[in-house]
# Entry
Amino acid sequence: MRIGFIGTGVMGSGIIANLLKHDYDLVVYNRTKEHAKDVLNLGAKWADSPAQVARASDVVMTMVGFPQDVVDVYCGQNGVMKAVKPNQLLIDLTTSKPSLAQNLAAKATQRGAFMLDAPVSGGDIGAQKGTLTVMVGGDRDQLNQHLALFHAFGQTVRYFGPAGSGQHAKMANQIMIAGTMTGMCECLAYAKAAHLKLDEVLATVNNGAAANWSLANYGPRILKDDYTPGFFVKHFVKDLRIALDEAAKMHLQLPATDQAKRLYEQLMQQGDSDDGTQALIKLWWK
Amino acid sequence: MRIGFIGTGVMGSGIIANLLKHDYDLVVYNRTKEHAKDVLNLGAKWADSPAQVARASDVVMTMVGFPQDVVDVYCGQNGVMKAVKPNQLLIDLTTSKPSLAQNLAAKATQRGAFMLDAPVSGGDIGAQKGTLTVMVGGDRDQLNQHLALFHAFGQTVRYFGPAGSGQHAKMANQIMIAGTMTGMCECLAYAKAAHLKLDEVLATVNNGAAANWSLANYGPRILKDDYTPGFFVKHFVKDLRIALDEAAKMHLQLPATDQAKRLYEQLMQQGDSDDGTQALIKLWWK
# Structure
């Protein structure tokens, strides 16, 4: 099966490598061709635009940065929608707006094609190892017919409902992480101000009812002043803005998530957009 | 060794049962004698006041509700401080104010005695099983001399520094939990509003970078509308108020913890003080 893949960043490249390992033929496009070098060396073919990718493939997958990038890739002048074929399956892996996912699915349907929203969690390491969790919304039959494709890069593949539901599930995930990240940073800020030994605080707090993945994985990095990105601040801010916009549409108030968003925006204003999310501690440790 | 124990609530009774199992002699007092019935049946002796408990024992332990209860028990008319003996060790297990712990330790020193602050985590189940985590502040030699006593009810016993440090470590723990609880409830509120299947959201979100103890343990209870207390709302509000007061004294802002406190206060104003902390979801699911 010929897979078109648009977006060869860290996440996309990991997924592409796993698809190649599973003997899929890959045609790729990326805004900056230079960043596709690694996957081209692994055997992927190059195409000159998203439309060319769609023409050259059976299934199109996209993994880009922001909702506007998704719009550009699908609806731009040489976008996927210009070349989509009847019965072709389009899969957006980007974490993006549920409403945009619905909008694109409708456009695909108008053209006799199908679209799934399928954001992932598990980070760059999950992408490399093929152990991502994939949250899928859209046509369930299409997912079932392409399960082998999903399992080439995803360990857990879960269907959540009609178009946009995969994005909603991902938003629920990010809302939870907003809580663990702000809690962790305020916990460490307090402990340091109280002159406690931070490694012992981490060991103790992560041993009981306060235990969480962020504390176990990012806590030790913070203690080493290691702010290299597992997940970019700028992408987390994007996710939290989407979550809060969607919540507002549903007349739902999320005050703790809103507080987390404001703290991360403050961090971005300090110039730390390209740090990892654990850099939130810098708001306290100047 | 004769242990005096003041406070035979759920936590205190569990700890007393473990001390009796380890062949310590117990003398107990509780504001409401009726609630001491179970431990008296197990072999503990009754004393008529905190002062009487201090007279009849080598080490005095206290596990009461609020900082004012700690003040009453130690400094009241028939309080522990009225009868404390030279070299006697006093241990407060209540989660209370670091500044109060320092104040009481100073009072003990004036009387030639010793005092440790040693709040615990692990809940009623940890108290029953003897698997609590104990966070200790005060005289390190006193802790080392009484390690066997601490390990009769605590699996992990950790020393954090001078008087008040045990309370500070516990505050760091509660600040972290404020993040996991608010994150979990807003995650579930969002997922429900988006018409996702909540059991699948729990399974997915708890499978990756958002994973945490609250979600794993309280998430399923919320889905069953089970708000019975593992940990009371009123006690969590007390803890968060202490944490934020102490932070303010250290000129430290904790906006996410402050938001969590305001949400839990709102829950208390609705009349849900005696529910478990997972009842926070009621702010969204009326």
Notes: The CA atoms of residues 233 and 277 of chain B lie 5 Å apart. The longest strand of chain B covers residues 154-161. Chain B has a mean pLDDT of 97. Chain B is about 50% helix and 15% strand.
